[in-house]
Specification:
α6 packs across α7. With about 230 residues, the protein is an alpha+beta fold. The protein is elongated and about 70 Å long. It contains eight helices and six strands, in the order αββααβββαααααβ. Helices cover about 35% and strands about 20% of the residues. The longest helix has 14 residues, at about 70-85. The chain folds into two domains: about 10-125, 2-Layer Sandwich (Beta-Lactamase), CATH 3.30.450.20; about 135-220, Winged helix-like DNA-binding domain superfamily/Winged helix DNA-binding domain (Arc Repressor Mutant, subunit A), CATH 1.10.10.10. The chain has helices at about 15-20, 40-45, 70-85, 135, 155-165, 170-180, 180-195, 200-210, and strands at about 25-30, 35-40, 85-95, 100-110, 120-125, 225-230. The two termini are about 20 Å apart. A six-stranded antiparallel β-sheet has the order 2-1-5-4-3-6.
Length: about 230
């Protein structure tokens, strides 16, 4: 990367104003992956204390789960700067004041100075929303995941089986993912049907939609990770 050291005073007032009033988390980092600026929304996403001075700090200098991705973050920032091209990352980590593991899309682009030289990166982060082709065909809107257990009526294992069954996996496919026998899955499903007083998969799907289980994902499936998606 270039050795150019970008400072907050190098950023135009117009950009700062746009970021400050933007509800979407955003940050600007220099060519060495040091933070130069973050807006209030990003400070909240990273769960930073009020008044925290982030300028000149690396992700490893702040107490956040994203620090485990520091090497990959540095590599991706370098590619954006060297190639003068944008990239989108899907980062699953603990975010926000509640410290909940959830997926965010970080859109990163090169940051240019007044002379047209790339001196860093600028990024926006948005909570990942999910949208299937069938939802599109049915005229539905993208959804965000339900991360908290929506109903204490079910055990964790039952919720895992509900999740895979609702999304179309067979008993054998569900069993393979959960590392249990398919007969165990079938027995659990049978008990579930009795428990919620339904008789078939159509009623099962309707029941899940009625109590927002269609948007729920078991927390053990949300593994901290970073991947390129665009």
């Amino acid at each position: 990367m270039s050795g150019t050291h970008l400072k907050r005073e190098d950023i135009s007032r117009q950009i700062i104003y746009m970021c400050e009033s933007n509800p979407t988390p955003c940050h600007i980092r220099d060519s060495e992956c040091r933070y130069v600026y973050i807006n209030p929304a990003m400070a909240e996403l990273l769960d930073l204390p009020k008044g925290f001075n982030i300028e000149g700090k690396l992700i490893t200098d702040i107490s956040h789960w994203m620090a485990i991705f520091s090497e990959e973050t540095y590599k991706h920032d370098k590619n954006v700067i060297d190639n003068k091209s944008s990239i989108s990352l899907l980062i699953t980590s603990a975010f926000g004041r509640e410290d909940i593991v959830q997926p965010y899309i970080f859109d990163i682009q090169p940051f240019f100075n007044d002379k047209g030289h790339v001196v860093g990166t600028m990024a926006e982060a948005k909570l990942c929303r999910f949208f299937s082709p069938l939802q599109y065909a049915d005229g539905e809107s993208p959804i965000t995941l339900t991360l908290n257990m929506p109903h204490s009526y079910f055990t964790e294992r039952e919720l895992e089986i509900i999740f895979f069954t609702y999304h179309g996996l067979s008993s054998k496919e569900t069993a393979r993912r959960l590392k249990i026998s398919h007969r165990t899955v079938e027995n659990r499903l049978c008990n579930l049907y009795q428990k919620i007083h339904i008789n078939n998969i159509y009623q099962f799907r309707e029941f899940c939609r009625d109590i927002d289980l269609d948007c729920y994902i078991p927390t053990n499936l949300l593994v901290p990770s970073i991947r390129v998606i665009g």
